[in-house]
Amino acid sequence: MQARDIMTTNVVTVGTEVPILAVARVLAEHRISGVPVVDMKNKVVGMLTEGDLLRRSELGTERDRSLWLELFVSDKQYATEYAQTHGATADAVMTRHVIHVTPDTPIASIINLFERHRIKRVPVIEDGTLVGIVSRSNLIQVLAGMADQVALPTADDRRIRDQVLAELRRLPRPLEPATSVVVLGGIVHLWGLASTPADQIALRTAAEATPGVRGVKDHTMPVGDS
Length: 226
Prior knowledge:
Blueprint: H1 3-6, E1 14-15, H2 20-30, E2 34-38, E3 44-49, H3 67-70, H4 75-86, H5 90-93, H6 107-117, E4 121-126, E5 129-135, H7 136-145, H8 155-169, E6 180-184, E7 187-191, E8 193-194, H9 197-208, E9 215-218, E10 221-222
Parallel strand pairs: 1-2, 7-9, 8-10
Antiparallel strand pairs: 2-3, 4-5, 6-7
């Protein structure tokens, strides 16, 4: 199984000049814990997560070290910490070293990256373009979907998944960024959030209408009113 089999394709991003408070609002509204930061050419230049927003001057949560400990803190570390606590835009606060994978990266390799770098998500980049994101929740969703079967996705499953995603993109309302699609043995598993109960029905209907689909298991939850 590869990144392309489980990645979320409707990726929420923010620009480098987006104010930090606006980034916090994006995370809260979409119920996600991190976003890729993109430049004017839509290239990924950083990652910004909830962890980057914990030490903020607005919250009064800056680090408070003793005079003794300050002797061991380098000027570079001070500058980095100051940017994180007082930076006004995504560019000032984001992590610039972006760990990423390609659509062909095996899931086992992604898990190794999560563990080695203590991260929760990786952007999926193909030919320099952001095409998806894989998070820990995507992996858990796959594991849950395999509870009643052990088969891995086939070429037909991948074709069906591409068709389902294409159909979902044609819906009147955009697909929730937290919604993901997994296809195993011709069975479509829908995970994550739907904006309203009506959208939940639309997602399920679109998946059921896709040629080759043997069945649909809807695990999504509505987050708004009908």
